[in-house]
Structures are given as structure tokens and as C-alpha cells.
């Protein structure tokens, strides 16, 4: 109900941080009207003017990095050093699109029977972003920077447990000097998203989140004949072959599984290790898990903070229990957990049989699922036996194995001897139930434009 407040609770200790009053239907309508009005003039600004403001946004992020990072950590438990790194990455994506938007959206000359033909990329209008809590700033900025630089205006519906971060993001664009209405945060629940998408002034929607949320948004957008871009869950495969640099593979595997306390769609979640190096990998993996420091996320040396909510922790425990009951072997890092807060001891599940959460579901927390494989064909077969297709990794020195992995792994990205990571310069997105469309690079700024064909006789 509109008169009820939404509570922000610190997952490290369960204490109340802040309460927010959701926007009323009238306030949402007014925000859409402001965004639509701002678009009428914003679309006519040149790339140089937009770039100056986007560079200013990067400066606001850098100037307020400590405050924004501390808020993220308080709201969803991300270790503070990782929160600061997230702010720096947001500044990077702002600067990237400030510098490259004009090139990405330049007229494209085409062959025809006329005097001239070309494609021009024109903004669509008001774009809605529905975003998750796990990277409260980055998920938004990788949408907002290209969307605004393309000449669109933006509305943000953020996850309810990170509303202060959502308002801080609005502050960034306001302080940078963007026109009123260019970027606005809507403090609304998920049950109000459908109404916003259906509004004729809203021209498209981008969602990062769960499969069910993506399906609901895609259905609403499709019925309204509006473009949508979905970046959904993942259960990324991480393959290790005998020729790999094992220490490098292990160090990368640890970070890829446990950064952001394991709460990342592109985290490596399923590890397929060749039988020739399996025992050494498993021993090294367990040793590294024991060395992780779990504790206060505000401390600079903390590796593992709390999970974002008690429900996420409880769901993860249920998935582990089901996999162990089916025959998986459980290794725990061995941390003593605080009495209050959403804490979870990192663990490794080995040898889970098919049909278990280990093989079939996304585990959103610091749980690694490990299997022994007989060769690359076996690893790829198992990797592809998933409804997800976001990222994938192979560690090998064999060029033939690299080529086979690139061609045969069913994923939106394959990283060789490195962990999956998003980069403003590279297209980002998945296939299968990991979504559709691409963010970042030229693909990201062309996601919400009218690619208009122009023919001159």
C-alpha cells in the first residue's frame, strides 16, 4: 500500500537503517510526465553537450565515492573495498560513453540505387530500468550512461532494499547538471512495474534480475509492442584442463566464485576439472576457501560479508541440503558465524548427481559446485546441460581446446584463462534463460535507438 513504508535493514546485524515512503500513483505519473517533457529537448542536444554532463557525472561519483560505497555496504552487505571499486567502475562507464557515443551512433553509409543511403540512430524516448540489489550502482550505470548519451531519458525502479543507493544515483545526475527529468528514481514495488511499462510515454524497458521477473517484464512489454532487454541469472561453467596454470586457475576460481559474497549473475558457479588435475585443484580450492576472511563488511580486509537478506540465505541452505541429501559431498570453510544478520559460511559441493540444485539451479551465494570430468567433450556437455547461458570460462594452454570452447560452449561470453567480467568496451549479455540483448560497447548504446533508414533519390 502507498501509505506503508519500505524498510532498509542492514544484513550484517539486522538493524533498521532507514524507512522510505513509496511514491503514489500520482507521483509516478508526474515523474513519467517530467521524463517525457525532458526528452523533447534532451533529444536535440548534441553529443558534445551530453558528454560534458556525463563526464561531470563521473566526477560526482569519484568525489562521493566513500559515501556512496558505505551506503551500498550498509544496505546489502558488499565488502566496502568492493563497493568502492564498483563506484570507480561506474565512473569508467560514464567516461567511456562520453568519449565514444558519437562514434557508436554515427551515421552508417549504406549501398543503394539512390544518390545516398544511410542509417541514422535516433533516441526512442523514456526508458524504464528495473534493476537488482547485488551491484546497486553498476547495474544502473551500465544502463544509464549509454541510454542518456543516446538522447533518451530514464526512469529507475530499483530493488527495495537499496532505495538509498537508488536515490544517490539520481543525485549523481542531478549534481552533474543533467536537465530535470532526464534521470529519475521511482520508489515503487514490483507490483507497479506493469503499469509503468504500459504507459504510452514509456518506450522500452531494460531489466536485470531473476528469470521470473524477466519473464513478467518481457510479457508485458511484448503485449505492448515495446522493446525489452533482459539480463537474467546465470550458472556459469568454469573448466580447467591439464595444461592450465593451476595456481592461476585456482586464484581466479576463488575470486570468480566469492566476490560480492558470491551474489553475482556472472559468478563461476559450476566447476568442471579434468581428472588429471582434479585432486590438486580440489585441495587447492579447499585451502583457499579456508583462508577467506568472513566478517564486518566495513573492514578493509573482509572478503566475505553477509548475504543480502535472510531469505537469500535460507534458500541457499535449502539448495545445499537437497544436493547433499542426493549424494553431494559438502566442504565448509569453517567460519564461526555471528548470531545476528544474514551470514553464511562459504562451501564447496563435490560430485552432486544430475537433477539436484547443484546441477539445475543458480546458487546465489559463495557455494562452488565441483565435478571431475574425463575430457573437454565431457566438460562442455555438462556445462551446456543447463537452462542458463550467461558466461563461461576455460583454463588451458592448448589452442585447439580454446577454439573448441569458444565454438561449443552455449553462453553469451567465453573467457580464456580469465574470469568473466563486464567491461564497457565489450558486449555483455546471455542466451537461453540468461536473457537476450546486449549491454555495453556499441551494442549497449544501440539497444534503445531507432535505427532509421534514410534514402535519398
Strand order of the largest sheet: 12-13-14-11-10-16-17
Shape: globular
Report Rg. Answer: 23 Å
Residue runs with pLDDT of under 50 for 5 or more positions = none
Number of helices: 15
Within the CATH hierarchy, at the fold level, what is the topology of the largest domain?
Answer: Aldehyde Dehydrogenase, Chain A, domain 1
- State the oligomer: single chain
- Helix and strand content put the structural class at alpha/beta
Distance between the termini: 58 Å
Tell me the count of domains.
2
Largest sheet: 7 strands, mixed
Strand content: 15-25%
Structure description:
- This protein has 457 residues and is an alpha/beta fold.
- The chain folds into two domains: 6-232 and 434-456, Aldehyde Dehydrogenase, Chain A, domain 1 (3-Layer(aba) Sandwich), CATH 3.40.605; 236-428, Aldehyde Dehydrogenase, Chain A, domain 2, CATH 3.40.309.10.
- The chain contains 15 helices and 20 strands.
- It has helices at residues 25-42, 47-63, 65-76, 80-104, 138-149, 163-176, 193-198, 211-223, 246-258, 278-291, 310-325, 357-360, 376-384, 399-408, 441-445, and strands at residues 6-9, 16-20, 108-110, 116-123, 126-130, 153-157, 183-186, 202-208, 228-231, 236-240, 268-274, 329-332, 347-350, 367-373, 388-389, 392-395, 415-416, 431-432, 435-436, 449-456.
- A seven-stranded mixed beta sheet has the order 12-13-14-11-10-16-17, with helices on both faces. The chain has a six-stranded mixed beta sheet with strand order 7-6-5-8-9-19, with helices on both faces. Strands 3-4-20 form a three-stranded antiparallel beta sheet, with no helix packed on it.
- Helix 12 (357-360) links the parallel strand 13 and strand 14.
- Helix 2 (47-63) crosses helix 6 (163-176), helix 4 (80-104) runs parallel beside helix 5 and helix 9 (246-258) crosses helix 10.
- The longest helix has 25 residues, at 80-104.
- The protein is globular.
- The N and C termini lie far apart (58 Å).
- The relative contact order is 0.14.
- The model has no long low-confidence stretch (mean pLDDT 97).
